[in-house]
Amino acid sequence: MIPWADIIVILWVTLWAYLGYSKGLLGALRRIIGNIVGLIGAWLLTPLALAWLEGFWGLETALAKSLLARLPASLLTLIHGVGETARTLQELKENLLALPLPPEVILYLTKASEEMPSAANLSMDALLERLALDLANNILWAISFIVLWRLVALFTRHFLGLFTGQTGWGLFGALDRLLGLVAMTGLSVVFLIVICGVLQPIILVSEPGSGLGRLYPYAASSQLLRWLAGVYQFYLLPLIR
After folding, report:
1. How many angstroms separate the CA atoms of 3 and 219, rounded?
2. Domains of the chain, residue spans
3. What is the pLDDT of residues 191-228, one digit of tens each?
4. Which pTM does this prediction carry?
5. Greater model confidence, 180 or 173
């Protein structure tokens, strides 16, 4: 049986594909160009926005402290238990990989251990702080990227509206509709990738059964959502950083 989360993702992409097909490429040209320019603008401006947010507001540090305070007690117990037996960074990584945790959590933990400054001081508090900072950074990257994408896209669409008219029909018939379908489908998938990228860390650190933690069973059972979050973490983040 297909998970409900996968059904929602399929319906979302199908809706965007239908809108692209019904409007055609020319009908949606302003929106498409606006979104493309918005993506490029967000890619270039997100590092500056994050540096400004941290420099003037300390937002990443504040969010990391908030996430650290929200980590489940069971996870803290497991991590501190691992730290008591590890003597080197390699031992720590091996112990982390053996923990009975979701692979996404293990990935964040091992990444945090690799960023620890010294093997001489395997402080689990330092590891947890590094973990919280990584989670906070990923969340703020995704949020800033989405906000800047929409703002730049909105400005671009309004700017193009000064020079274009609304014809109401496509000049290239079926080809125009097909191009609109492909373009809008691609944009909808990019949007879902970023949304999954910002929600996954929050869901992972939430207490099971409360708040966003209630969404974990649905996210864990959905291959599509895990694939989308993986694309954000392994492919999109390295590109925009």
Report:
1. 9
2. 4-9+26-70+134-164+171-240
3. 898 888 888 877 777 767 777 777 778 777 888 888 88
4. 0.67
5. 180
Q: What is the pLDDT, as a whole number, of residue 232?
A: 86
Q: What is the DSSP string of the chain?
A: ---HHHHHHHHHHHHHHHHHHHHHHHHTHHHHHHHHHHHHHHHHHHHHHHHHIIIII-HHHHHHHHHHHHS-HHHHHHHHHHHHH--SHHHHHHHHHTSSS-HHHHHHHHHHHHT-S-SS---HHHHHHHHHHHHHHHHHHHHHHHHHHHHHHHHHHHHHTTT----SS-TTHHHHHHHHHHHHHHHHHHHHHHHHHHHHHHHHHSPTTSGGGGGHHHHHH-HHHHHHHHHIIIIIHHHH-
